[in-house]
Amino acid sequence: MPSQGKKYEYLEHTADIKFLAYGNTLEEVFENAALAMFNVIIDTGKVSGETTREVFLTSPDPESLLVDWLSELLYLFEVDEIIFWKFQVEEVSEEAGEYSIKALASGEKYYPESHPFETEIKAVTYNQLELEKTASGWKAQVVVDI
After folding, report:
1. In CATH, what class is 2-145?
2. Spatial separation of the C-alpha atoms in residues 72 and 79, rounded to whole Å
3. What is the pLDDT at residue 1?
4. What gap in Å lies between CA 77 and CA 84, rounded to an integer?
5. Triad 103, 29, 45: Cα angle to 5°
6. Within 13 Å of residue 132, how many CA atoms lie on the same side as its CB?
């Protein structure tokens, strides 16, 4: 795996939170970006459960698809009150100039008393967004507005 086995790391940023996510495949970098984002909100190591949501999205380019993916997960957290801890991206594909994702997100109902809230994320941004193929796989840089 890229960068000595790391899935993601947090970077210095003034008012927001910025992180890098890594993966051997594009699908894996999307999974690890979601994991990094949810670890901003809560310690996902304390979450289990198998409540799942299917996610199907289409966007004009891979970077927009990444933002849409993370934004959809954030929306599901806010509306359905499910805290996600496991992500299985089955496929990221390109067809007729559009990119799509087919994925499953697993988690459990959010209960404030059993899931200490760490940081509220207001939005996923395009600020300093990067998604690139590297010699050792894929890397994404994401900034979330807190």
Report:
1. alpha beta
2. 10
3. 52
4. 8
5. 80
6. 7
What's the CA gap between 40 and 104, in Å, rounded? 20
User: What is the value of pTM for the model shown?
Assistant: 0.90
Of 31, 86, 26, the residue nearest 53 (C-alpha) = 86
3-state SS class at 96? coil
Cα dihedral sign, 67-72-77-79:
positive
Output the pLDDT for position 15.
73
Q: Which of 86, 77, 75 is nearest to 50 (CA)?
A: 86
Distance of CA 60 to the CA centre of its chain: 18
Q: Are 104 and 84 within 8 A, CB to CB?
A: no
Alpha-helical segments (H) within the chain: 2-5, 26-41, 62-80
Going by C-alpha positions, the residue among 19, 143, 140 that lies closest to residue 89 is 140
> For the chain, which residues make up each domain, given as ranges?
2-145
Q: Return the pLDDT at 54.
A: 97
* Residues of the chain under the 70 pLDDT cut: 1-3, 13-14
